[in-house]
Design a protein that fits this description.
The chain has helices at about 5-15, 40-50, 60-75; strands spanning about 75-90, 90-100. The protein has about 120 residues and is α+β, with helices and mostly antiparallel strands. It has a domain at about 35-115. Strands 1-2 form a two-stranded antiparallel sheet. A hairpin with a 2-residue loop joins β1 and β2 (about 90-100). The two termini are about 25 Å apart.
């Protein structure tokens, strides 16, 4: 099965979303840069790497997922899992997308932004 139609759809969505009007506010007294910590980011990466290799379907990947859920919850994010099984060269493997929105009410509203990342190896 070709992934080309899906790739074109995703690329089109990204291009069109870039054409939308963006509303950005700036609070000079409380800049975002002051909230970002390279040390904290490195600590999170170190923790994830510390679980060891994280191939799909592994216990170490599940540990990583629980870690992410815990850390996101501590910051006010509500996570939901999207689990599915797919055929791989190694047989059927269970995969899980971890989705998060800020606060429970955000699950009822429209998605205005999307950030995707892999946390497996």
């Amino acid at each position: 099965m070709s992934h080309r139609p899906l790739s074109l759809l995703v690329a089109s969505g990204l291009i069109l979303s870039g054409c939308a009007e963006a509303v950005v506010s700036f609070d000079a007294a409380n800049p975002l840069e002051a909230k970002v910590s390279g040390e904290k980011a490195l600590a999170h990466v170190t923790a994830l790497v510390g679980f060891g290799p994280r191939p799909a379907g592994s216990e170490t990947l599940e540990q990583s997922r629980r870690y992410l859920e815990k850390e996101l919850a501590a910051l006010g994010w509500v996570t939901r899992r999207q689990t599915f099984t797919s055929k791989t060269p190694h047989g059927q493997v269970e995969f899980t997308n971890l989705r998060a929105r800020f606060g429970e009410a955000a699950w009822k509203g429209k998605v205005t932004g999307l950030l995707c990342s892999h946390y497996d190896t």
